[in-house]
Amino acid sequence: MIGHGQMKPATRQRSGHADGVPLISERVNIMCRFFLAAGLAASTLMLTACGGNSYGSSSPSSPSDTPPPANAITINVVRENGNQSFSPNPATIPAGQTVVWHNIDTTTHRVVLNDGRLDTGNLAPGAFSQPMTLAAPSPYHCSIHPDMIGALVNQ
Predict the structure, then answer these.
(1) pLDDT beyond 70 at 152
(2) What is the pTM of this model?
(3) CATH architecture for residues 73-154
């Protein structure tokens, strides 16, 4: 009970809400903004992690725009298409042969041997890897697009 000279404590009211309870649509709007922000944060984390190198100990070579040496075998990075992502695939390579990967796709790729002995570094569209001499054949893949697989076999 409020006596003479005492003021009733002020209650905070939202505009248009006599009882101080927000409308359901306001709550939905707040939740939508929250989920949008959470989705953007998750997308940013995924995109940042996508380009990472899963072979922490390998040292990638620097890709180049210069054509490979004449005696090198060139393997084209065609597109993301499973075992048809590289051409030729499998590539028949004699032991000790120099190999380069040429990215003819419109997106960046990164070729690594499955055992981690070789890492081309990120290959931008049109770029060649540095020439690499291979001691033994091996399966390989794109570390950015793991469904892209290839194989090097002995001649």
Answers:
(1) yes
(2) 0.58
(3) Sandwich (2.60)
